Amino acid sequence: MSRNICSKFCLVFLNVPLFLLGIGALVVGSLYLQYNRKVAIGVVVVAIIIISVGLFGICGALMESKIFLNIYIIVMILLTLALIGGLVALIVYKKRVTNTYLNITSNRVKQFSAITDEVDKSTIIAIFKQRKCCGFEEVNDYPLLFEKFEECRKTPIDGKWTLTCIEKVKNESNVIYMAILVLTALLLLCTIFASTSACCITCQDRHYRDKDSAYS
């Protein structure tokens, strides 16, 4: 049992948080079913996949099950390749990623007057209030949204709120891009490390089995 202790510990250490993440996503997906069934079902499916992968890793490590470990290694290799592709795409298409966030936010502002859902409206108002900005591209544009803020109704506009929202959204998009990039890179390192640990367990098991059979 002690011969694979380091690799086992690493594999369990990596997969317990993954398993718990899957449980959390499953709970969130189940609770969200009443609001948006399609999105909730998608979250539940992803959660089940995450839980399954985590279980394969944990059970494979603790039981030294060749079947579990081989399935886990295949999944990790596929995930590693997908993350490498994602990382390359993020670097190559940086402008497209940041512009997507900017365009989504811009469309929400432009369509604000047509939104009938009060909860949706309140959410947009709350988000822009936190940004402390007046107007989107110009200080005085889209008054239906920005005149809801006392600081934007002042003349001259409050000094803290003189920046237009488009500048703040651009900054946010860069922060979000970097966060996604770093997270993808960290996940890539984790998948490489996890698949290496699983391979070590299977290789060591094979080595000791061959050694035992040679002595017998």
TrEMBL record:
One of its GO terms (cellular component) is membrane. It is a multi-pass membrane protein. The keyword Transcription does not apply. It is found in: Membrane. Keywords: Membrane, Transmembrane, Transmembrane helix. The chain crosses the membrane at residues 12-33, 39-62, 69-93, 176-201. It comes from the Eukaryota. This is Tetraspanin.
